[in-house]
């Protein structure tokens, strides 16, 4: 559920880190983000999004992520399950 959001945050963070690194090469006054800090941020974002996704899936089993879809697909899923019956 939330993994795509977490991965987006990680990519944005890495982009920021790369821009700061480039800026630091041009001017020593621009700060750099340490590798250990980067790894910590990435790990925390992954753990939080995985835990949030698992908790959401347990609370609402019909709420699942669908590849390529950013819309709320619960109504469509409810209609699909109602017409075909529960999976065997």
Pairing-aware structural class of the strands and helices?
mainly alpha
Q: Please work out how many helical segments DSSP would assign.
A: 3
Backbone CA Rg: 19 Å
- Which range best describes the helical content: under 10%, 10-25%, 25-40%, 40-55%, 55-70% or over 70%? 55-70%
- Which runs of at least 5 residues are low in confidence (pLDDT < 50)? none
Termini, distance in Å?
Answer: 24 Å
- What proportion strand? under 5%
What profile does the largest beta sheet have?
Answer: none
Shape: elongated
| Average of the residue pLDDT scores | 84
| Count of all domains | 1
**Strand and helix order:** HHH
Number of strands: 0
What this model shows, in words?
With 88 residues, the chain is mainly α. The chain has one domain. Helix content is 68%, strand content 0%. The chain has helices spanning 3-26, 35-59, 74-84. It starts with a helix and ends with a helix.
Helix-strand blueprint:
Blueprint: H1 3-26, H2 35-59, H3 74-84
Helix pairs in contact: 1-2
What labels describe this entry?
single chain, mainly alpha
Give me a quick take on this structure.
With 88 residues, the protein is mostly helical. It has 3 helices and no strands.
């Amino acid at each position: 559920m939330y993994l795509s959001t977490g991965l987006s945050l990680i990519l944005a963070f890495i982009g920021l880190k790369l821009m700061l690194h480039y800026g630091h090469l041009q001017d020593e006054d621009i700060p750099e983000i340490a590798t250990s800090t980067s790894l910590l941020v990435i790990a925390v974002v992954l753990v939080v999004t995985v835990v949030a996704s698992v908790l959401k899936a347990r609370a609402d089993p019909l709420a699942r992520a669908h590849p390529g879809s950013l819309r709320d697909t619960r109504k469509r899923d409810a209609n699909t399950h109602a017409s075909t019956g529960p999976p065997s």
